[in-house]
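Below is a filled-in request sheet from our internal design queue. Each sheet records the structural input a requester submitted and the sequence that came back. We keep these sheets so that new team members can see what a complete request looks like end to end.

REQUESTER: design group, bay 2
PRIORITY: normal
MODE: inverse folding
CHAIN LENGTH: 283
BACKBONE (tokenized):
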């Protein structure tokens, strides 16, 4: 008899049919060629997973190295990163802030890690994935059991402790992945860590696009999709552009529910004045 689903675990309404949106058509030879080239590039980067933890680097040097390695992995997967949202062209200080983003794919942590590395709150099973799990551990993933409410206070306390010590933590408050065409509700629980530590919240809007700017579902990992199928779909796409938009920081003196509501409003594309935030042009 199948286990009864936990009613508190977020479930996306997305399904495998969502993955057909904006699909590019290519010859079998072109797809196979891309797959082989990118697989070879990933294989060349694999030794770095063993070398990076042994470098002994810490602080800004380690952050810079992790950011660069994430970008190399994404390039091997056929993904380029585009960043927007800097006020006056200056990079905001993201040390000791809770970064919250919408959630589309297993690739999200590498995209955000290429922009603002930190510890990631992600589902526990990710650390066990072959290859990707080792890279996730390098990015200091804080494992969370989606079906265990009893473990949640401990995760919130861990996140608050890291924030107080000046470390950046990235979380996905939707609690599960969506296809990128639709979004889930931001649960307020993890925002309590920002309230407890007195550290600001940095909303981030993440989206994947084709080179011509159309939305792409190549990176999506939803529903009954398998990890292998998701990786292959991304690696065989012509090129995927991941857009990362940094919104304005939120004051931690608000309640966790207010923070969740305001962060979700920004991630869904509503700015400080209520006007939609434009997506950057695909590179």
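RETURNED SEQUENCE:
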């Amino acid at each position: 008899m199948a286990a009864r689903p936990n009613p508190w675990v977020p479930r996306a309404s997305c399904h495998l049919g969502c993955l057909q949106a904006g699909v590019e058509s290519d010859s079998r030879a072109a797809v196979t060629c891309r797959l082989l080239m990118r697989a070879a590039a990933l294989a060349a980067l694999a030794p770095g997973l063993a070398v990076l933890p042994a470098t002994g680097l810490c602080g800004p040097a380690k952050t810079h190295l992790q950011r660069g390695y994430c970008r190399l992995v994404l390039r091997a997967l056929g993904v380029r990163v585009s960043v927007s949202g800097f006020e006056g062209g200056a990079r905001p200080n993201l040390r000791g802030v809770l970064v919250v983003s919408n959630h589309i794919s297993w690739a999200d942590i590498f995209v955000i890690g290429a922009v603002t590395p930190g510890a990631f709150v992600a589902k526990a099973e990710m650390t066990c994935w072959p290859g990707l799990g080792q890279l996730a551990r390098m990015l200091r993933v804080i494992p969370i059991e989606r079906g265990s409410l009893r473990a949640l206070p401990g995760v919130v306390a861990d996140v608050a402790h890291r924030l107080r010590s000046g470390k950046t933590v990235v979380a996905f408050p939707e609690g599960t992945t969506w296809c990128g065409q639709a979004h889930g509700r931001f649960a307020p629980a993890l925002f309590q860590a920002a309230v407890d530590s007195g550290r600001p919240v940095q909303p981030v809007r993440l989206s994947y696009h084709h080179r011509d700017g159309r939305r792409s579902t190549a990176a999506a990992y939803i529903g009954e999709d398998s990890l292998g199928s998701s990786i292959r779909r991304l690696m065989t796409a012509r090129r995927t552009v991941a857009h990362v938009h940094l919104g304005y920081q939120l004051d931690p003196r608000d309640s966790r529910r207010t923070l969740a509501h305001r962060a979700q409003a920004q991630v869904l594309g509503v700015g400080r004045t209520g006007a939609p935030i434009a997506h950057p042009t695909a590179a």
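SHEET NOTES:
- The longest strand covers residues 201-209.
- The domain at 25-267 is CATH 3.40.1130 (Glycerol-3-phosphate (1)-acyltransferase).
FILED BY: M.R.
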